[in-house]
Model the fold of this input.
Amino acid sequence: MSGVLLVRVWRFASTRLVIVTLATLVWGWLLLFFYSQFSEAIRQLAVQSPIFKQFTNFGSGNLFTISGAITLGTQHPLVIALIGIFAVGGAALAIAGERQAGTLEVLLARPLPRRSYLLTQLVAILAMVALLVAALLSGMAIGAVTQGLTGELDLARFPLMWLNGLLLWGAFTSFSLAVSASFDRPGPAIGLSLAFLLVNYFLEILGSFWTDAKWTQEYSLFHHFQSGEILAGKADPADFVLLLAVVLVPLGYALWIFPRRDLAAPA
Amino acid sequence: MEGEGPGSTPPAIQTEGLTKHYGSVRALNALSIEVRVGEIFGFLGPNGSGKSTTIRTLLGYLHATAGRARVLGLDVERESVEIRRKTGYLPGGIALYGSLSGADALEYLSELQGQPATRRNELCERLQLSTSDLRRRIRDYSRGMRQKLGVIQALQHDPELAILDEPTEGLDPLMQHAFYGILEDMRAAGRTIFFSSHVLPEVERVCDRVAIIRAGELMALQTVDDLLARRKRRITLRWRGAAPDLSFVPGLADLQVRGDRATATLAGEVGPFVRAVASPALEDLTIEPASLEEAFLEFYADGEGPGHVPREMGSAQPSEEPR
Done:
């Protein structure tokens, strides 16, 4: 780990991070606002139209209960895009992007072991992801307080929800970083990382919209971030273990491959 | 490896049969060189000859297919981090973070180096990089200013060994001159400089010894003086009246006589030639100094591969003579 590099990675991302953190916070608040203002109207619509009801079951969430709304909020494409900027984009560029830019060459001319570089990038990005997940949940907590929904929520379960969210996005970060460590150009690294994210998302959403394909959700990492279950006090430790394994396996691969790779002169 | 007796200072760089293959492509083939502590060592070769591959293997960016290398007595595979702690490296066409100011970039890299930038101010002054220049963002720098910053980041911590890839690329003649002065001062302070270059006059000017590689193989490793001494010099002679018969003069070749004027190439010592042609009728004599460029080009003449190395240059066992 290099403290100097860690601080610099954060400084480079600071403006973007502040903007995305605020956006995530506002989104968390907005979701609870919408829930408190429109859930009853949506419920009426759902009763009248079974097709509409089916479409309100987005991912593992819905708009009929506060825990369903929170789950929906954590799986909404907007949140995926916001957190994905760092967890997928940032991680995929952390090595391959610096390689192509030629700046990795200058950094690795210092007494900085490659593993240390990789772990520092991982910690820096995970810290950003942790902040974003915290901002999302904080926004929801503020929304619950301002909309008078605290009676429906056990805020003491938010830390566990944060940990589950961090593990989910940590898995995508770890995978993207491993891909980044394996390529010299950012194009393939971003492409593969994004594909991994989208396939997981597709499997989760497909199962939620189409009952016959519900089994596909089991194969999605998003299905193992169950805010609703945690809020209901039914957190499954297997979800945490599985996500942790998906963090560790790509990380182990990255730590193995990166020091062994030849880093030819950038084009 | 040779050259490492008990108590003796290890060479700054020592490679033994260093080989690097990319699939079927041989980027480096059994390269054996030794760079002595305190010398300026020029590493010459055209594009794709293996210069960068050698440098990148020495610094741990690449892993050798075969052979061994040590830098400052440290193994490049196992002790790469320690090597980089003692080394300053200027990559060819250096890339720095455009969003940072020059001062911030130097500070950042110095912090990563973990050593105080004891020479930064002096180098900035000598390379005329002012405080206001250093406050500007790197993205606004000219190519020459980036190169100056690259030189400073490599040398600011006063490394034991500087590895510089095309260091004067983009520098104007004035700054090149200042840069040569910096190298000479480093040598005087016992530092070692290993640099690759295409600019042969600068290699001729500042280097103690040079290695020439072609297609990943060592063609020559000699002192610059020795390399030049073996080169043919172009000579022109003019007499009062017709030119005499010069066929008996030792070392002359490519002789062309036109009236009172003769041109030829001269190999070897100048003394015997001058004694042989000296006469009251000789009106003018011009001996063009041998240049490294000619020596270099000779190694790359058509049809000469690594297997056709001139005998005196010794491909398999490069000749090494003290300067």
